[in-house]
Write a structure and sequence with these properties.
The chain has helices at 3-13, 21-35, 42-54, 57-64, 66-85, 92-99, 106-113, 116-126, 158-167; strands spanning 136-139, 149-150, 169-175, 187-192, 199-202, 206-208. It folds into 3 domains: 3-63, no CATH class; 70-126, no CATH class; 136-208, no CATH class. It contains 9 helices and 6 strands. A hairpin with a 6-residue loop joins strand 4 and strand 5 (199-202).
Length: 215
């Protein structure tokens, strides 16, 4: 693409709703560089190509239909990802929009959605649960005190943990809201035997409790 064509294309897309502030600033610097008679680097051309591809009539149409597409196709995934990323420093603008019931920016949402960690979280959220409601379970060998979280927030005491490891508890709720991008991260709410204080624990920390021996 010639320098004249680059400037013409930038002028064409500058009023597109898909043309964000960062792209605008970058393109302004490119125009200034061309006017000064300086050649563009390969990296600059690469970035320009990406910007031009993100700002086409087709992309403008996609943006216009994004609110409906989000509600129909992505709302459930958004809730799952907002829960996971809400506990991290990443994608906080997108998370805030989702948690406040707003439609997030299309480009930023898809950037979050296609992150490798997000894909792991969605896989865990949507797969079949290993345990069912009412199952009697105990902590497995890998279960530690800091893997148990009180249903009203916070970790539980070591005493509660030891009691659960010894006596087990019952599955009273299964959640598709995931807080770890790891295999076996589906969360279960457990009501321990002999207690009224429920807690959350991940599937990878549980095993079926042995049936009581008959006397």
């Amino acid at each position: 693409m010639t320098e004249h064509a680059i400037k013409a294309r930038i002028k064409q897309i500058q009023d597109y709703p898909t043309f964000n502030d960062w792209s605008r600033g970058f393109c302004e610097s490119i125009v200034d560089q061309i006017d000064r008679g300086r050649r563009l680097s390969e990296k600059q051309v690469e970035v320009l190509t990406r910007i031009f591809n993100e700002n086409t009539e087709e992309e403008v149409k996609k943006l216009a239909s994004w609110p409906q597409e989000y509600q129909n196709s992505w709302y459930d995934n958004a809730e799952i990802l907002a829960f996971y990323y809400g506990k991290t420093p990443y994608y906080q603008e997108v998370v805030r929009d989702i948690q406040n019931g707003l439609v997030p920016q299309r480009h930023q949402f898809h950037k979050m959605l296609n992150n490798k960690y997000a894909l792991k979280v969605l896989t865990e959220a949507k797969k079949s649960s290993k345990f069912n409601l009412g199952d009697y379970v105990v902590g497995n060998a890998g279960c530690q005190t800091n893997h148990l979280f009180a249903a009203d927030s916070g970790r539980l005491s070591h005493h509660v943990f030891k009691d659960f490891k010894r006596r087990g508890g019952f599955v009273i709720e299964i959640s598709n809201l995931i807080q770890s991008a790891a295999k076996g991260a589906k969360r279960y709410k457990i009501l321990p035997v002999g207690s009224t204080i429920a807690f959350w624990v991940e599937e990878r920390r549980l095993k079926k409790a042995p049936k009581p021996k008959r006397s």
